[in-house]
Design goal:
This protein has 243 residues and is an alpha+beta fold. The chain is 31% helix and 18% strand. Strands 3-9-5-10-8-7 form a six-stranded mixed beta sheet. A two-stranded parallel ribbon has the order 1-2. Strands 4-11 form a two-stranded antiparallel sheet. Helix 2 crosses helix 4. The two termini are 24 Å apart.
């Protein structure tokens, strides 16, 4: 669980959230934007957020377990999330990443879903889906991502969940349906301090020539790997709140 040293109020809140579902976590001190040089085309906050996730990827890559679960400190857990997090037996064998959250935006997924447990299923993710507050990452994918992100070209959630990036198209990414996690901004904000980890610059940016080539190459690879979008659908991934 990624948390800035200066976000003590958010640590209190997220500690309570993990305690509520009875799951232990390891706190990772987030990289602070105040102490680093920002990457080209990214804000200081976006750069720091990406570096924070890379710390987690390194731990998974160097660890002994086949998977790791990464959370930001504004995560809220839904129904029976604890059962899902206590086992990896349901994770598809070919999965590099399983996204556990929803941003409540329409996203393109495979129509075919694979039932896992407790009313949840997983399906391939083919469209852009914002957010990196909750996902499972395989050890092999962590190693791959560290190789592919030596130079930062986009915010971390784009690198993981945007088909216009070469990182996404080199991964096999699944989405859990419904989502057992959501960022606190999408639920009641009462007594929920704002997370400082993933503050985004939402102002549109003009792509450079290199970035346009990068995006065209990513789309071409995606089509080569998966063919057309026949058999997919665009839906809003629902959040399954605590019952």
């Amino acid at each position: 669980m990624i948390n800035l040293d200066r976000s003590k109020d958010r640590l209190v809140q997220v500690t309570s959230e993990f305690a509520r579902i009875g799951v232990a976590f390891e706190r990772i001190a987030a990289v602070d934007a105040a102490g680093i040089s920002k990457a080209p085309r990214l804000t200081g906050a976006e750069t720091a957020c990406f570096r924070s996730h890379q710390l987690c990827w390194r731990m998974i890559a160097d660890g002994s377990q086949p998977y790791g679960a990464i959370f930001e400190d504004d995560v809220v857990f839904g129904h029976d999330a604890s059962s899902l997090l206590r086992s990896t037996s349901w994770v598809p064998k070919d999965a590099d990443v399983v996204k556990l959250e929803t941003f409540l935006d329409p996203v393109r997924i495979d129509r075919q879903r694979h039932e896992v447990a407790h009313g949840y299923s997983v399906t391939r993710l083919f469209g852009r889906h914002h957010g990196a507050a909750a996902y499972i990452l395989s050890k092999s994918a962590a190693k791959k991502l560290l190789r592919l992100t030596k130079h930062l070209r986009s915010p971390v959630d784009n690198a993981l969940f945007d088909p216009a990036t070469l990182t996404f198209v080199r991964l096999t990414v699944y989405q859990m349906v419904p989502a057992p996690c959501i960022q606190s901004q999408w639920v009641s904000r009462e007594d929920k301090p704002e997370s400082l980890i993933q503050q985004r610059n939402l102002a549109p940016k003009q792509d450079t020539v290199g970035e346009k080539i990068h995006k065209h190459a990513a789309r071409a690879i995606l089509l080569l790997r998966n063919g057309t979008f026949r058999g997919t659908e665009k839906v809003v991934i629902p959040y399954r709140a605590q019952e």
